[in-house]
Amino acid sequence: MTSIQKKLIATGGFIGLMASLLMKYGNPGNMGICVACFIRDIAGAMGLHSVEKLSYLRPEIIGFILGSFLAALAFKEFKPRGGSSPAIRFVLGMIMMIGALAFLGCPLRMLLRMAGGDLNALVGLAGFLAGIYIGILYLKKGFSLGRSYTQHAVNGSVLPIIGVFLLIGLLAAPAFIGSGAAHAPWILALAVGLAVGAAAQRTRLCTAGAFRDIMLIRDFTLFFGVAAIFITALVGNLIFNPGVFHLSFVEQAAAHTDGLWNFMGMVVVGFAATLLGGCPLRQTILGSEGDSDSAVTFLGLLMGAAVSHNFGLAASGAGLALNGQVGVIVCLVLLFLIATLYSRETA
Amino acid sequence: MIEVDARGRSCPEPVVMAKKALDQYDGQEIVILVDTNVAKENVSRMATNSGFSVTTEENGGDVRITCSK
Question: pTM for the whole thing?
């Protein structure tokens, strides 16, 4: 086993274990860590949508941003860069969030839901793999959002600076910032976020990249991290959250049983993540190590959460309403359009 | 020598571009230019796994990855 594979197992293992611990200490069910859900909660805290119980400046996300920023600085990997179709990336970020909220979770939460026995997440996994496969077909046809160039250090620091403002908002907690979501103690959440952010920056952990690399180049390196998340979350649940694990489609925390839309929502996420070059976690990490295109993608995720909840596109425990179904189909059409327009056959 | 310029490309484009060139290897050395550590690691790993001997050389912010068999 190579050194990077060992580091990925350690990082993934830490994420899975900490996710079950955060759930024990107050984070929502099977949602110890969810990058999409937590960015949605930040959108709520900022008043970008008005669902009070989905509002909180999640310290985990702040930790991902600042932890990866500091790790990148320490290891001389902070590299301000950008200019690879930022507006398209913003739209892809929105689309990825709308897909995630149709399923109710990013790929990371999908793994945690599987570790809680939620069989709907397996349907989501099938959709995620299908979406990645479609994305790869376009990558092979020469899909590219164009190259990025070196930029001014300030441009590369925008997301870390946003992270600092979010931290100030979290600590100052003024009345105009929403905080109605269930959550673990902020200090624990922030500490976990910082550690995960730093480790994910070092190991390049990516839930979409893991499956993409297997399909594209038969490389299982990143998969070690993803497998470790699932295994330690499973063990962590059995230790910290006895009674949570039950193997079933029904009565799962923050989930619905509408198979078609669980599948389709994750097709959107897998397809968008492959075009973007990474899942929501990876985009957050890249945006914090100087990639301003990924910082724009992060803002797109935030906007996607606002659109999703304000227009009634997000799923609930009851399933995905008609608005959400239309939303997912529109997202898919846009993905095919973008993928086609930016692909050209290369010799 | 065949040169592939993958600088500024986001993941996994450098790997896709490099793989396309390596798949058509005809004995000529193939050089892949990248400009991030991530791309350097990914392309080197892919080329090594495909049976190529790989050397890397850093020059400013750019990295030259030379692949041959």
Answer: 0.97
